[in-house]
Design a protein that fits this description.
The protein is an alpha+beta fold. It has nine helices and 21 strands. The strands form five sheets. Strands 1, 2, 3, 4, 7, 10, 11, 12, 13 and 14 form a ten-stranded mixed beta sheet that branches. The chain has a five-stranded mixed beta sheet with strand order 18-17-19-20-21.
């Protein structure tokens, strides 16, 4: 989609470095871009690196549409250690011998946890639903407090809080063992939102009887956003400095001095890094309307099917189809016995009836106006979100 006039909304696919929190990235981007309303689509652990889509201004409103996005991680773990955070940055609780563990044992542990067949060769592959116990150092909130608050303050977690911690069901689209050089193991995991990679590492360590802690994590993809087309914070800062927008006073740590105040428009020299709001919405349908109809939609009118052309129907992700089949097989009594919930799998089925609304302007650019969902009551497309700032 072409961009005409000042750009106020969009998404930047940022590559977060390890050692930097997701909120640190947002703080730096506010300084670089000069816009305060910036957020991300999902936190990455401070020790993790990789893809972190950053939403500018109205782009943050599409977050709920991204529930169905799968994320891909490259994880490494070290055997023989247990920590309170389930990764090597935490306090060591116990060390164990791993000398008797073999590569076949590692692959066997993954198979036992994720259902791989005994005849399956490495890499081990699996697709399906699993039930996870979140890490105690996670952002899960119980009785008004995040669990990590207890861990970071060395405060003993109350028994009644522990009793309320429930398993969560998540979708693992694929997990593979990519390398075993004991005591280190490398995995690739493609999964739904809400998946705790550290919990997977913990469970592998427990299956082997020696414990394990995550030693590295890289998110290589998040929905439509991949590592290959991501930009670093430093690359953005250098582009802004070259354009005379900021001065980089220090690179390590990154310190920035702005030359102007904050506004709501993305500086033109940085718009080349910005993707359109509808970029990650490829699974939604697409409808083309006239400029006049787009103006009515902007004003809150429903869209009659006689006044539009459906270019693409909404898509059902293949993994969601498999998820539905798995849910039918899942035994209700076992779910209740294990305390399993659907946290992480609360997917909005109405998105299978949702379309992107676009029109072609005189310059030949296709302009994204907003999203609308089919209504059985009206048999029309009813506006869900309008993103256009000015009347067509």
């Amino acid at each position: 989609m072409g961009k005409t006039g000042p750009v106020k909304d969009g998404i930047i696919n940022v590559y977060k470095p390890g050692g930097m929190t997701s909120n640190d990235v947002i703080y730096k981007l506010r300084q670089i871009i000069g816009i305060r309303k910036i957020g991300h689509t999902g936190t990455l652990d401070p020790m993790a690196e990789g893809v972190l889509p950053v939403m500018i201004n109205r782009a943050s409103r599409i977050n709920e549409y991204l529930d169905r996005d799968l994320k891909t991680y490259e994880a490494s773990l070290v055997l023989g250690i247990r920590t309170d955070s389930l990764d090597v940055t935490g306090k060591v609780l116990e060390t164990s011998g791993y000398e008797g563990v073999t590569e076949d044992d590692v692959i066997g542990a993954v198979k036992s946890l994720f259902g791989g067949s005994a005849q399956q060769k490495t890499p081990v592959s699996f697709s399906g639903v699993i039930s996870q116990l979140p890490p105690l150092a996670s952002a899960v909130r119980i009785d008004g407090r995040h669990l990590y608050e207890y861990v970071h303050s060395d405060e003993e977690m109350p028994e009644d809080v522990l009793a309320k911690l429930r398993h969560r069901r998540v979708w693992i689209d694929e997990i593979s063992v990519d390398g075993v050089e004991l005591p280190r193991v490398k995995l690739t995991i493609r999964c739904s939102k809400g998946t705790y990679i550290r919990s997977i590492v913990r469970d592998i360590g427990e299956a082997l009887g020696c414990g394990a802690a995550m030693s590295g994590l890289k998110r290589t993809a998040s929905g439509a956003f991949t590592m290959e087309d991501a930009v670093t914070v430093m690359e953005l800062a250098e582009a802004a400095q070259e354009a005379g927008l900021i001065d980089i006073e220090s690179r390590e740590p990154l310190m920035i001095r702005r030359h102007a105040g904050f506004g709501d428009t993305i500086p033109e020299p940085l718009t080349g890094f910005v993707k359109g709001i509808d970029y990650p919405l490829g699974e939604l349908g697409e409808v083309l309307v006239s400029r006049e109809t787009a103006g009515k939609f902007f004003d809150g009118w429903h869209i009659d099917y006689r006044d539009c052309r459906i270019l693409k129907e909404p898509e059902q992700a293949a993994w969601m189809e498999r998820l539905s089949e798995e849910e039918e097989r899942y035994d209700r009594e076992e779910r209740e016995r294990n305390g399993g919930s659907h946290a992480g799998l609360k997917l909005h089925s109405e998105f299978l009836r949702t379309y992107r609304i676009c029109y072609d302007d005189p310059a030949g650019d296709r302009i994204f106006v907003g999203t609308a969902a089919h209504s059985d009551r009206y048999h029309k497309l009813v506006a869900d979100k309008v993103f256009l700032r000015e009347h067509p």
